[in-house]
Amino acid sequence: MQNQEESLRYSPYFTKKSGACDEAKETNNLKYEGKSTGKSPKKPRRPLKRFGEMSEEDVLKLKLPEHLDYNLDILFVGINPGLMAAYKGHHYAGANNHFWPCLYESGLVPERLTYLDDVRCPSYGIGLTNMVERTTRGSADLSRKEMRDGKDGLIRKVELYKPLIVCFNGKVIYELFSGSKCTVGRQKDPIPGTNTVVYVMPSTSGRTQTYPRASDKVPFFLELKALREEVKQKSGDTSCSDGQQKY
C-alpha cells in the first residue's frame, strides 16, 4: 500500500506535483517576460536618400547633356540615361560601371578619368551620347516610338558630326538600332547613309553576367583602339593616334 502511494506521489499525473511544475514554469515565464519587456525598442531605420533631397520622380525629369564635336574618332552610344547618371549629370556615373577604368587601361586616353571628366572627352577625340534622351528607371520603360525616333536622331548626329567610329555600349542597343541580331566586334555595315564604322562592345555595366569584371571588358576597348588606328590610317589622319588631347 505504501509503495502504491509513493508511486502515485511521484507520478507525472499526480495533481499536486503537476501543479507545482506549472507554477514553476509560470514563474520562469514571468521572469523571461520581465527581461524582454525591459529592453528598449529598436529605433526605426532612416530611409536611404539615394538622390539627396530629390525624389525619384524629380530625377526622372532631368536631362543628361551630350558631349559631341565634329570629326571625333569614336562616338560612344548608350541606350538612355539611368537614374544615377541623370542625378549626377554625368555619363557612366554608376559606382559599378567599368567604362572609365577600361577607357584608361586600354590606352584610349592617356590619363585616368572619372565620370566628372566626361565633358573633357571630346578633347581626346571621344564623344558621348544616347539613343534616347529621356531618363528612365530601366530601358524596358522606353516605348517603341522612342526607340524609332532615337535611331533617326542618332543617324542625323552621325551625319552632322562625322565621327570615324560609332561604338554601341551594349549588344542590345545595336540590335535595337539595326533591328537584327549581332555579335560583339566590328560590324560589316556602317551607319546608314554614312561611312562611319560601327563597333559593338559588351555593356560596361557591372551587372553584365557574361563579362562581370572590368578586366573582362578591357580586351574590347583594346580592339576598339586598334580599330581606331586602322580607320585613321585609311582616312589619312594620323593625328592623336596615341590618345593625346586634340585641343
Tell me what you see in this structure.
By secondary structure, the protein is α/β, with parallel strands linked by helices. It contains eight helices and five strands. The protein has helices spanning 2-9, 15-37, 56-59, 83-88, 99-105, 144-161, 171-178, 214-235; strands spanning 74-78, 126-130, 165-169, 185-186, 197-201. It has a five-stranded mixed sheet with strand order 2-1-3-5-4, sandwiched between helices. α5 (99-105) packs across α8. The model is unreliable at 7-21 and 30-35 (pLDDT under 50). This is G/T mismatch-specific thymine DNA glycosylase. Keywords: Activator, Chromatin regulator, DNA damage, DNA repair, Hydrolase, Isopeptide bond, Nucleus, Transcription, Transcription regulation, Ubl conjugation. It holds the Pfam family UDG.
